Amino acid sequence: MNGTEMYCTWCGDDVPPLRWATGRQTCLMCGEEHARLERLSWCVVQEYGKGPYQLITQSAAHTTLRQTNQKNLRG
Q1: Of 14, 40, 38, 39, nearest in space to 25 by CA
Q2: Which pTM does this prediction carry?
Q3: Average pLDDT over residues 45-74
Q4: How far apart are CA 29 and CA 15, in angstroms?
Q5: What separation in angstroms does the CA of 58 have from each of 5, 65, 73?
């Protein structure tokens, strides 16, 4: 690759130059597919009784839920 060739790392299709310049090395279709798969692992929990909603990933849910339990003492 000589720096002017911008091909998707997933499918090999062309990537628009502006998209490549922002650091995205996937075409629009593959980027959307990756985003869709990532959104499947999201869940929303309420941080505190009157607090705002917080978006967390499945891997962080266990830790976040333990830290936001109002019945446990944190110290």
Answers
A1: 14
A2: 0.52
A3: 69
A4: 10
A5: 36, 11, 24
